[in-house]
Amino acid sequence: MIPLLDFAANDLAGIGLIAAVVLLLGVAGLRLLRRNRQDAPGADATWPKPPASRPIAPAQPAPAPPVVAPAPARAAKVPEATPPPDEEARKEAYRQKKEQERLDKERKRQEREADEAQARVAAALAAAEAEEARATALAAQRVKAQAEAGKTLSAGLEKTRGGFMARLNGLLGGGRTLDDSVLADLEELLFTADIGVKTATALLEMVRAKVRARALADPAQLKQALKVEITRILALDGAAAALPPFAPGQVRPWVVMVVGVNGSGKTTTIGKLAAKLKDAGHSVVLGAGDTFRAAAGEQLEVWAGRVGAPVVRGKNGADPASVCFEAVQQGVTTKADVVLCDTAGRLHTKAPLMEELKKVKRVIAKAVPGAPHEVLLVLDSTNGQNAIAQARQFHEALQVTGLALTKLDGTAKGGVIIGICDELKLPVRWVGVGETVADLKAFSPAEFVEALFE
Ligand SMILES: Nc1nc2c(ncn2[C@@H]2O[C@H](COP(=O)(O)OP(=O)(O)OP(=O)(O)O)[C@@H](O)[C@H]2O)c(=O)[nH]1
Ligand SMILES: [Mg+2]
Questions:
Q1: In the prediction, which pLDDT does 98 show?
Q2: 290 lines ligand 1 (CB under 6 A)
Q3: What is the pLDDT of residues 5-45, one digit of tens each?
Q4: pLDDT at 294 over 80
């Protein structure tokens, strides 16, 4: 058994060895065969494809290798290496953003500078305008101050002083002895003056009586006696104080109806009077009762605008009485202190026109019992003696209560006022010595005489 076993063991080892060699050879042959096949151009497609990770032969172009960032050491060695595209895009976007920011900043700076320059120009313009306005206001203030001051009564009476009064002062101021020749010269002078025959006669009689009574030693005393007598006449011999005064505020509304011939100065006097009354704190309503002349209403409206008083107007050609009635009614409803009613200028010799004025007066009385409280007759002193005739007619028709004597600045006939007061015994309320508001002066007999004999 043992030899058998020995044989068997030796044989088995040999067989195993041989089998291993054969197997190795087989495998090597197979591998060789496979390589040859693959190298051959028409290699059999049925052969299983080699795994992708181990290509044997690149039949197709190899796919792009994955982008791998170069190792820093290698990048330093290749400076031209371009950064990946998205990095470049980010950088470009960043550059563009920065550039845009710079442009924006620059634009804003330019805009700011333009704004500042514009503001500087505007400020310079505003300063120039303010300076101009200040100069204009100063000039206007000067004009206003001059206008407010108006002419003095003395300046307003310059022409009258240059006429009748200059001759009177020449006669009585030159150191002549008071004899018959002086009295004869005085007679001529008084009768050629515009004081009216009646008043001239009365003044001469007074002087003669005093000379007879040896009450006058010289022409200077004669002059003084004349001044006293004229003051007495202008003060209506004391009766003026007893007459109803011009008293706005006494009743409310205090209604004034203003009358007179064409162009005597009614509307202007109303405007000046309204300004004075407003200055004194009275509220005023104006009634445009002159519906006859187209521009009359506008003229009154201009004054109303200037003084800040409401004006009641009718249509052109409307009934003047109804316009005045409406104005007085407005005065009642608004509790105004004064209503000033303008009327159309008319010839005192035209009866129908005077009748129309009477109707206006009656209708005003219907609006407020007792009104008009003043019928103010406006007389143009340049009319001289004719003014006395007008006054008589208007007084007869309307019972005039006060006078305004206008345009004394434009005439040498200022002496007419003495005749008017002497003949009609009507109080002079106002005298006009110019066209501005301040040129309407409240009348004072003593002041007037002083200015006349200056
Ligand atoms: N110099 C001077 N002019 C005056 C005076 N009063 C009025 N006037 C002027 O006289 C002119 C006539 O004045 P108005 O107020 O229109 O006269 P009116 O009486 O209303 O005239 P009618 O409405 O047409 O009847 C105007 O140019 C006035 O400026 C004055 O006292 N002095
Ligand atoms: Mg008028």
A1: 95
A2: yes
A3: 454 555 666 676 777 777 888 777 677 766 655 554 444 43
A4: no
* Pocket flag, ligand 1, residue 381 (CB < 6 Å): no
Cα-to-centroid distance, 434 and ligand 1 (Å): 9
Check residues 337 and 75 and name the one with the higher pLDDT.
Answer: 337
Q: Which ligand 1 atom minimizes the distance to the CA of 434? A: 32
Residue written as token pair 């409406």: 326
Pocket test for ligand 1, best of 300, 356, 379, 435 (most atoms within 8 A of CB): 435
Main-chain phi, psi angles of 77, to 5 degrees? -75, -20
Please give the order of strands across the beta sheet that includes 284-289: 311-313, 284-289, 338-343, 254-259, 374-380, 402-406, 428-432, 440-442
Q: Is any ligand 1 atom within 6 A of the Cβ of residue 432?
A: yes
The ligand with the least distance to the CA atom of 377 is 1
First to last CA, the chain: 193
Which of 259, 268, 439 most suits a substitution to test ligand 1, by most atoms within 8 Å of the C-beta? 268
Does ligand 1 have an atom closer than 6 angstroms to the CB of 407?
Answer: yes
